[in-house]
Every structure is written in C-alpha cells, then in structure tokens.
C-alpha cells in the first residue's frame, strides 16, 4: 500500500505532465494558425540614374504592427531594406543601399511591399527576395531585377534636293539596342539597305545615343522606327502626308507574366507635331503631359508587361 508521501509525489508528477501537455497543445495551435501566405513579385527593369520600383505584394493584414517586410539581395551580406512595427528599421541595411530605399508606408496595410530604389545603378541588377511576416503567416518570393538605359525616340524629317529622309534619335540606351525600320505601305520590306544606324557613347561611358536615318521616304505612308534591347522596346511611328506629318511614340518595359497590383512611378511623355516647311522640319517636343499610372494588371496570357507612353500630333 502506497504511503501518503508517494501518493502526493505521483499526483504532483501527473499534474506536471498534464500542464506540459496543455502547454504543448496551446503552442501547437498557435503554430498551426500561422500558415504560409502568398507573396507575389514582378520581374522588372530599372533605368540607370532614375528611380525604380521592385514590385512585391502580399495578403493584406490590418494589424500593421505585426507586418515585417524584408528585402534581400543575392550576394549581399546586409539587408536591402527592412520595415517592421510600422516603420523602417535600417540598422542592418547594406552600405550600397544607404539613403536609396523606401517602401510605400501608407500602402503596406493593403498588401503592398514594393520597394522604391533611388538613383538606379548598373550594379543593382540581380536576384532579390521579398520576405513577408504578418499575423496570418509568412512567405517570400524572388524577383529578377534588370538594369539598363532606355528612352523614347525623337523623330525628325529632313528634306534635300533629291529625296526625303527620316531621322530617329534616342538619347540613352544600354545595352546596345537593335534598330529596325518598318512601313505600313511596304509591309515586310527590309529597310536595312536604305537606312543607317550609329551609336555614340555618352559622357558617363555607359549609355549610348542612338541615331538611325531612313532614306528615300515617300509621302502618304506611315513609318516605324523600333529600338529594342533585352530590357525595353520603344517605337516612333511617323505618318507622312503631302502637306504635314504626325508622329507618336510608344514603348514597353519587358517583364514576366504576373498577377496582382503593382505600383508604377509617374511617367512623362513628349507631344510632338510639325508642319512641312520649304526646307526642313524637326519634330520637337512642344508640350508635355503627365500620364499617372497607379496600378498595372496583366492577364496570364500576356508574355510582356506593357508600359506605354503615347503622344499624338494634332
């Protein structure tokens, strides 16, 4: 027969075991409640010397204090950027990103973890990770960020005694692009033998000025000057008539297909128009208007993410 002391001892042991089991269950339920959340990124490109966006979205969480956003870059020891407890925490930020990063703090609560990168450098290219923790769980997604230079072309129409020519000029591109001319009337024609393209290195010894001239231009026709590299594509379309001409430019930044809202920076677009004088005509920007793009949504069927700048002659 067990003594009173043994009964008390084993009773205490039983209580401890029961309490330990209860604690384990509580912890288990807590862990199971924090599941994986969906994080979405978009492969994008940065224009050297300008501000860029590394796009990332996640499942919204109204508890801002529980949201942690970490941006990391492959090959970089420190963090690119960290946001937690409702504010930036840059104590572990890598030196190469000092003073150059920011998140959209007013949009974090709705699931926007996109990073603004100031003064994009060629060395900013690489693989980034967007890592998110919320009260609902955690998740991450990688992003391939490309850097280069791209600009919209300016179109000029020149006249001489023998023929007319079109001059397509863009101030800064990198890597070196290809330039192809096309005609609405002569669809499928190869204009390489009646055009000349040159590349001039700019003063910073990275980007290059692109100039392409198409000779033997005819009236009542629409020509296209297409400039393209592996980052972006820009096109200048020129409609030549007997008494005047109209031009517009458009382009897109190449990217992978994605789903979800992505914030984009404001974009400026030149509007060009010219009348045909007796000797020469130059299509110069007469005014500028701002095209504000807040969000872009693409379908699964798209292969490229299009960002369009358009200006029409009157």
UniProtKB/TrEMBL annotation:
Any GO CC annotation of this UniProt entry: external side of plasma membrane
Transmembrane segments: 7-31
Subcellular location: Cell membrane
GO biological process, alphabetically ordered: adaptive immune response; negative regulation of T cell activation; regulation of cytokine production; regulation of T cell proliferation; T cell receptor signaling pathway
GO molecular function: signaling receptor binding
PROSITE patterns, sorted: IG_LIKE
Domain Ig-like: 49-132, 153-241
Keyword Chloroplast in annotation: no
InterPro entries, alphabetized: BTN3A2-like_Ig-C (IPR053896), Ig-like_dom (IPR007110), Ig-like_dom_sf (IPR036179), Ig-like_fold (IPR013783), Ig_sub (IPR003599), Ig_V-set (IPR013106), IgSF_BTN/MOG (IPR050504)
Signal peptide annotation: none
The UniProt record lists the keyword Glycoprotein: yes
Keywords for the protein's UniProt record, in alphabetical order: Adaptive immunity, Cell membrane, Disulfide bond, Glycoprotein, Immunity, Immunoglobulin domain, Lipoprotein, Membrane, Repeat, Signal, Transmembrane, Transmembrane helix
Family: Belongs to the immunoglobulin superfamily. BTN/MOG family.
Role of this protein: Negatively regulates T-cell-mediated immune response by inhibiting T-cell activation, proliferation, cytokine production and development of cytotoxicity. When expressed on the cell surface of tumor macrophages, plays an important role, together with regulatory T-cells (Treg), in the suppression of tumor-associated antigen-specific T-cell immunity. Involved in promoting epithelial cell transformation.
Protein's recorded name: V-set domain containing T cell activation inhibitor 1
Organism field: Oryctolagus cuniculus
Phylogenetic lineage: Eukaryota, Metazoa, Chordata, Craniata, Vertebrata
């Amino acid at each position: 027969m067990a003594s009173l002391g043994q009964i008390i001892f084993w009773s205490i042991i039983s209580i401890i075991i029961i309490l330990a089991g209860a604690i384990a269950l509580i912890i288990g339920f807590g862990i199971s409640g924090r599941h994986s959340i969906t994080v979405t990124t978009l492969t994008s490109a940065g224009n050297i010397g300008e501000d860029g966006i590394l796009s990332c979205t996640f499942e919204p969480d109204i508890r801002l204090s529980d949201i942690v956003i970490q941006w990391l870059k492959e090959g970089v020891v420190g963090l690119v950027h960290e946001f937690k407890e409702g504010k930036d925490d840059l104590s572990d930020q890598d030196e190469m990103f000092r003073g150059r990063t920011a998140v959209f703090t007013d949009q974090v609560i709705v699931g926007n973890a996109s990073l603004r990168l100031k003064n994009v450098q060629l060395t900013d290219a690489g693989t980034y990770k967007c890592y998110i923790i919320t009260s609902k769980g955690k998740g991450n997604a990688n992003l391939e960020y490309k850097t280069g230079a791209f600009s919209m072309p300016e179109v000029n129409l020149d006249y001489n005694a023998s023929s007319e020519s079109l001059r397509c000029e863009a101030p800064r591109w990198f890597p070196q692009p290809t330039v192809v001319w096309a005609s609405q009337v002569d669809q499928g024609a190869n204009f390489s033998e009646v055009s000349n393209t040159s590349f001039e290195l700019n003063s910073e010894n990275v980007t290059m000025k692109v100039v392409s001239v198409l000779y033997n231009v005819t009236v009542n026709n629409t020509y296209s000057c297409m400039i393209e590299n592996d980052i972006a594509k820009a096109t200048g379309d020129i409609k030549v008539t007997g008494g005047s001409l109209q031009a517009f430019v458009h382009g897109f930044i190449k990217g992978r297909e994605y789903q979800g809202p992505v914030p984009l920076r404001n974009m400026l677009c030149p509007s060009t128009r010219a009348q045909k004088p007796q000797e020469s005509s130059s299509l110069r920007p007469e005014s500028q208007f701002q095209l504000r793009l807040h969000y872009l949504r693409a379908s699964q069927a798209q292969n490229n993410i299009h960002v369009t700048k358009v200006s029409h002659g009157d």
